Amino acid sequence: MSTVETTLGPWPVTDLGRVNAHDHVIIDQGGTTITKEPDFRLDSVEKGIQEIAAWRAAGGGAIVDTMPFGCGRNAEKLIAISQGTGVPIIVPTGFQKAGYYLPSHWQHRYTEQEITDLVLAEITEGVDLNNYDGPLVRRSHVKAGFVKVAGEYQFVTATTRKLIRVAGNVHRETGAPVLVHTEMGTAGEELLDLLEAAGVPPPAVQLSHVDRNPDLRVHLQLARRGALLEYDSPGRIKYQPESVVVDLMRRMFDAGCGRYVALGGGMARRSYWRAYGGGPGFDYLLTNFTPRLRDEGFSEQEIDQIWTVNPRRWLTGDHG
Fold it and tell me: 182: how many CB neighbours lie within 10 A of its CB?
């Protein structure tokens, strides 16, 4: 695959730059902000342009946005931010964890085939600007670039098992990669097992937030199956000291598994964005954490692998 679907259309893989493998550029109205808290609302295009421009100025490239339909996605605003900054954003289809939706959401009652058809259309035709909140569908010219599914803390719900089968159906049809929310880095092995049984090979899977469970043995087991492990606690010290993540990354490379590590920001709160008056800012991983990796002895080749080679391999299906 020589291009990746983005808000700016099919984008050459060689021009993706340093890929932020997991982040949140817009979280608009919807279940997330209604059922969680106002700090999750990232709804300003103007502030989005300001924050993403800083990311680009720091050397940042494409961004994998991870808020799917029904819980805050607004593709029109994502497109506007891309046009205002020149940064391509990869739009998701699929589902967040159960708590981001009302218990009556249609994902619980629609059949596997019905949901497959809806998700498949976002990959092959264009994302629904109405986010399948119904009954009308407005297709964008922008296509989704991956399918998202989500586990819970230490377990996988019956509905998520169905949605994993949906992801498998879509992957077999299109080759679209799959991104998995792991809650505090748990249930990774079970989620990989279920996806593999559904027809999604581990190299097509990104397991997000796994550094929140910084157990080297667990990470090596997941990596040796071929999954991409996304780390996003740097800059968010409430989870753990950055030294823990640096050490984990060093040990992954030393064990020959550096090709399975990627970085994301996870900047899903206003209080994380400088444009909203918070911090550390969207560009922190490039302005602060990457220099620390150099100081800690990571080579430029290793840094390039983390930022460009590894996420490109997951996005494009080039698993050689």
Answer: 24
Calpha distance 104→166 (Å, rounded): 19
Asked whether 23 and 65 are in contact (CB, 8 A), the reply is yes
How wide is the angle at C-alpha 99 spanned by C-alphas 95 and 100, nearest 5°?
50
C-beta contacts of 290-294 below 8 A and 24+ residues apart: 292/242, 292/246, 293/246, 293/249
- Position of tokens 């981001």? 100
pLDDT at 226: 97
What DSSP element (H or E) covers 261? Answer: strand 261-263
Q: Tell the burial category of 179 from Cβ atoms under 10 Å away from its Cβ (0-12, 13-18, 19+).
A: buried
Round to whole Å and give the CA distance between 148 and 163. Answer: 9
One-letter amino acid at 247 equals D
In sequence order, the 6+-apart residues with CB closer than 8 A to the CB of 270 are 38, 39, 40, 41, 42, 276, 277, 278
Task: Give the chain's domains with CATH numbers.
Answer: 13-315 (3.20.20.140)
Does residue 58 have a pLDDT over 80?
A: yes
Longest dimension (CA), the chain: 55
Count, residues in the chain: 320
| Token output for 164 | 């994993």
DSSP β-bridge partners for residue 178: 147, 205
Nearest C-alpha neighbor of 235 from the set 68, 55, 86, 71: 55
CB within 8 A of 114, min separation 6: which ones?
A: none
Evaluate whether 182 touches 233 at the Cβ level (below 8 Å).
Answer: no
- H or E, element range at 222: helix 216-224
Distance of CA 62 to the CA centre of its chain: 12
Q: Over the range 269-291, which residues count as b (16 or more CB within 10 Å of their CB) and which as e?
A: bbebbbbbeeebbbbbbbbebbe
pTM for the whole structure: 0.97
Q: Tell me, what's the pLDDT at 317?
A: 84
Question: Average pLDDT over the chain, rounded to whole?
Answer: 96
How far is it, in rounded angstroms, from Cα 270 to Cα 38?
8
Which residue type occupies 111?
A: T
